[in-house]
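Here is an idea for our session: we take a single protein and study its fold together. Which protein we use is up to you, so please pick one and set it down. Once you have written the record down, we can walk along the chain together:
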Amino acid sequence: MLRFLTGIVLCACAAAESPAGIEKILAYQGTWKIETEHFNTRFSKAAKESSTLRNDCWRSGGFFVCDQFVNGESKDLIVFTYDAKDDTYGSYSVPAAGGEGGSGKLIVKGNVWTFPWEDKQDGKTVYFRIVNTFTAPGTIEYRQEFSEDKVHWTVTAKGLERKLEDRR
């Protein structure tokens, strides 16, 4: 579940028009307003929510790091890496409250940024992903989905994210 939450939070931050490699993660910097509609599925309950995400990010060598604040509270420190050979990103979360961290992958194809992962449910592999589509600078339409075959996907949530002017 931690990877799922981290993916949700991370999806609020990317931008389609950004530098290459690890420098793309700089797009995560800033404050975002998030509106989400959750649907009633086996992995989610119907609800609507609104939140504000602020990412304080910096680069150090081959790493890019973001301290993520949700509604003003620091929640996770996310460390990103980049594999130029595979053109993929790794993400590693450290929860502010302690506990078990998580790791995941980010795949960028044009204006679509996808966070995929999988989990075992009742002995079967279930695939999950968060798909972010950048429709304009500072605007992301996203959806969270699951599948048992990677062909047929069920949407558990969808939303809209807008980057706010930084007032700090």
